[in-house]
Amino acid sequence: MYDIGRNKRAEKAFGLDDVAIVPTKRTRDMDDVDLSWKIDAVNLEFPLIAAPMDSIMSPATVIEVGRLGGLGVLNLEGLWTRYEDPTSVFTQLASISDPLAATRKLQQVYAAPIQAELIDARLAEIRAAAVPFAASLSPKHVRSFADRAVKGGVDFLVIRGTTVSAQHVSATAHSLDLTTFIHSLDVPVIVGGCANYHTALHLMRAGAAGVLVGFGGGSRKAIRNVLGIEVPMATAICDVAAARGDYLDESGGRYVAVIADGSIGGSGDVAKALACGADAAMVGVPFARAEEAPGRGYHWGPEAWHPTLSRGLRAHFDTTGTLEQILVGPSSVADGSMNLVEALRRTLASTGFTDVKSFQKAELVLV
Length: 367
Prior knowledge:
alpha/beta; TIM Barrel; 8-stranded parallel β-barrel; two-stranded antiparallel sheet; globular
């Protein structure tokens, strides 16, 4: 602990850039590495989840991620549920390079109402492809549309916000008690973000099947600048992983997945997040480089289009390949933004581990 002044003490926290993975005394053959993982009753081939951002996830790309062995998440508050055909909207957004004009345009296009019938249509399209998939809602709208998501056949409902607690208290509106709400649903729930031990433990006790660690994608720095809120990811993941272990003992064996959701820029970040204790990583930036990405190289999250307090940045990335190449290769770049699955497999092999669960015990050093 550090003394900030006479009445405040704080601990030192570390981001993923501050840590590195230490090799062990042995290495493994890559063919011996098993990246599969299970969340609730769903088995997936590798621990990567595509973030529910309009710039990367359309019904088509959610299906493609599922076909390749991962889990795609559609934002049910995004352009795909506000417009019958949002293609022209994406075209307009891609034509704007000025950040101020882009923010104003985002606020304008997201002012269109969410249409319940479009939620039904999008989910039916994905469900017909017979792949695992999830849908995302914010705490603000989850009461209104969760039933439609469940009826739409999602494997998971993701409740995702900048910060999410087990109970949201309001003097002017109905409070959202996640303990009651989650147990009323017929699908498992993934919820976050959270960034500390106690919040994670509360969310696990509320019935979450998975907990999102972090504040989501590229908005981390902007949230710190606007709200002053940030917990570096390495520390956050380790604290939430500790809560998972304690809850496992407390509950008599109920395992809750820990999912890193923030500061994941490439394959090295994925590996370090898992070594800190995460079961999977929610990925955004690498998918923004895909040829199929709806954002056409531009990438933004829901914080960027908040109607009164924008606190996210719309970023631009060069297109490097198809969604399949970014996930499972082959890679044509050397920066960790392509072939995420093989890169992770190679990390485990190079450090002597055969599966993600054992890799969570990898040794780390500060760099």
